[in-house]
Amino acid sequence: MNTTILGIETSCDETAVAIIHNEDILAEAVYTQKIHSRYGGVIPEFASRDHIRKLYPMVKDIFSSALVKPDDLDGVAVSSYPGLPGALLVGYSFAKGLTFAADVPLVKVNHLEGHLFAAKFSGAEPPFIALLVSGGHTEIIFVREWGVYEILGTTRDDAAGEAFDKIAQILGLPYPGGPQIQKLAEGGNPDAIKFPRAMMKSNDYDFSFSGLKTAAINLLYDWGAEKVRNNIGDICASFQEAVVDSLLNKLSRAVKEFEVDEIVIVGGVAANERLRQKAYEIFKDVKIPPKKYCTDNGAMIAFAGKFHLERGETEFTEFSFYRKS
Ligand code: KG4
Ligand code: ZN
Questions:
Q1: Left, alpha or beta for 322 (phi > 0: left; psi -120 to 50: alpha)?
Q2: Is the CB of 175 under 6 A from ligand 1?
Q3: Domain of 16, in residue numbers
């Protein structure tokens, strides 16, 4: 079966598109919105408006570089949940119109399933244990096969990316905070400040980052602006280390219990250098996609869409995960 699909991603602050043909990416483009950087977080209304501005010219561009016409498509895959409603609606409406004109199916893709499909760019195939770490989600998922997902653990409060973003905001750094903290951490000592690692001994695969966030905020207030400025590298390195340790501790626990050979880390936070380095040290077989496929991209949505389209699943596919009892 030959399949050509356009993938569209507009769930948050990336406008991302890709055209794939079977297992190949013919063309792709990502635009990361800059408008949010000064606000410390994504402003939903601005995100939607920026997607409206960018999506059409970007799709036009990749059609011409892929040498594909709308009529050549077998379907259009669009990230449809979870995400910012207004931002999702831009991608969805565009995709719906295009499928109507080209008379091909629309495949609604769960954004998290899209992140899981980015595992393909690391060479991984199910079964595997995935640590999915993004701005809104932190989950350990047992991917038994494509389409069969068992959520083993999740965050009880903030997501890992959200923790990076919130601390960066308090430090006065631009959004998104993760890359900023990583950069400042390069000059710092990860052992300088003993930030808490929550739930390390709990007998589950859940995470909690709100205690770490509060500890960091309290320290920043205690120290005051000047001391914080003078120790910014140590603060960022220690904070980053606490997040990385918390994530990898629970991932190790899951890997031991499930005795799965393949381990994968996906989602925006998987672009973090320290997380990647420590994961490669701890697990000899961990697979992590190239950084551009960790953060939001169109290709992951196209591949997830291709999977469902080839199975005839063009209606909304609830992400059929369940918690292990
Ligand atoms: O997957 P993603 O692009 O969008 C969501 O689905 O949320 O992830 C975005 C998140 C943001 O919280 C951002 O701060 C974080 O990923 N992130 C990083 C790094 N690059 C992106 N966090 C830590 N280190 C990085 N290098
Ligand atoms: Zn994402």
A1: beta
A2: no
A3: 4-116+294-323
